[in-house]
Specification:
Layout (H helix, E strand, L loop, with lengths): L1 H13 L4 H25 L6 H22 L4 H29 L22 H23 L10 H15 L17 H7 L3 E4 L4 E4 L8 H12 L5 H13 L3 H16 L4 H9 L3 H14 L4 H17 L12 H8 L3 H6 L14
Antiparallel strand pairs: 1-2
Helix pairs in contact: 1-4, 3-4, 5-10, 5-11, 6-9, 8-9, 9-10, 9-14
Length: 364
């Protein structure tokens, strides 16, 4: 039994999977069908289901090893057999979890790239277009700072499903979803202390399809953080695609959400500029958004370097194991998606606020 489960997991991990099948049968149909059941149910619980599950799992495996070794005989042969048996059982449990992961959410890593549905052209990516969009991000921040900060208190995490949920639904439908994913309730987690030290802002629990957030992120970071994690909920597993869709969700929302998106975008865009161009672009930034970006940078400096590097290495291996060739560098590829679609009718429609007139047919 254990060997069979391990063999099934190895086969599932290595077997070629047609991207078109994953896209149309899994990501757009089966996955969204159970996501619309699992996420609303898990959102009824105010705490992260990952927390007790992780504690039970660690205690269960640790207790199993302790009991198995305790019952083993005193001879070297008996103890070696016990260790081999426990190792096999632990590997089987890990393999079973991997199979559940693939079925619940993980196959989304193997879907067709989002560029197949966008008016994307790599020829649009150039130093000039990067500098132009970076300059636009500064102009947008300057224009949105007062409306965003003057619109009242920034939404708490629990307010975002109501505030940003309609934009989440609209962007999904525009991207071709017949059955949009349900917006999940952002939840705090016992992992917050680790998130803070590792520089992690949030994550998706792929087993209960719930969004976990770092409660220490700043108020004006919350809309984009939740939109990014919701994009994972919608089946966009690739980090660059989740960031791209998260930006679209925020731009389709209110002034505070749009400001949050441009705060994220400005840093992503400007970091790729040559130093002289970067300095020129930042020179146009007003004091208000400059202070917000400095506050974000100060928060990120609270991360412990060794913990952050370790977390990055682990996540890089996880992404590569799930067939994301760029690994953790895939986060930065959102710039290519932005530049490759910037200025197109598709981009203008996708990025329009939710109350903008004139909708068009969904993308295929």
């Amino acid at each position: 039994m254990a060997v069979g489960v391990i063999a099934a997991a190895v086969a599932a991990g290595l077997a070629p999977t047609p991207a078109s099948w994953v896209e149309h049968a899994y990501s757009r149909q089966w996955y969204l069908a159970w996501q619309n059941v699992v996420t609303p149910v898990s959102s009824l619980v105010g705490f992260s289901l990952l927390d007790p599950a992780a504690v039970i799992g660690v205690l269960g495996i640790g207790g199993g090893w302790w009991w198995g070794l305790r019952r083993a005989g005193a001879t070297w042969r008996e103890r070696t057999a016990a260790v081999a048996r426990l190792t096999l059982h632990t590997a089987a449990v890990s393999a079973a979890l991997y199979l559940v992961f693939l079925a619940m959410w993980g196959l989304n890593y193997r879907r067709e790239p989002l560029t197949a549905r966008l008016d994307y052209d790599a020829a649009r990516i150039s130093s000039a277009s990067l500098a132009a969009l970076a300059g636009e991000s500064v102009d947008r921040l300057n224009a949105l700072h007062a409306p965003a900060h003057g619109a009242g208190p920034w939404p708490a995490f629990e307010d975002l499903p109501e505030r940003l949920g309609p934009a989440f639904d609209r962007v999904q439908r525009r991207l071709g979803a017949i059955r949009p994913a349900a917006a999940g309730r952002p939840k705090a987690t016992l992992l917050t202390a680790y998130f803070r030290r590792a520089g992690i802002d949030g994550m998706l629990n792929p087993f209960s399809l719930e969004v976990l957030v770092n409660g220490t992120v700043l108020p004006f970071e919350r809309p984009f953080l939740v939109a990014h994690e919701w994009s994972h909920l919608a089946g966009y597993a690739n980090e660059s695609e989740a960031s791209f869709v998260g930006v679209l969700i925020c731009l389709a929302g209110d002034a505070q959400s749009r400001y949050s998106a441009w705060l994220y975008l400005s840093s992503q865009l400007v970091r790729h500029l040559p130093p002289d161009v970067r300095e020129r672009v930042w020179a146009g930034l007003a004091d208000g958004p400059r202070a917000d970006l400095r506050a974000i940078a100060a928060r990120l400096r609270e991360a412990v370097p060794v913990v952050r590097r370790s977390a990055s290495r682990v996540y890089d291996r996880y992404l590569r194991a799930n067939r994301v060739e760029a690994g953790i560098a895939s986060y930065g590829l959102v710039v290519d998606l932005l530049l490759g679609t910037d200025g197109t009718p598709v981009w203008r429609e996708l990025a329009a606020p939710i109350d903008a007139p004139g909708d068009v047919e969904p993308l295929p």
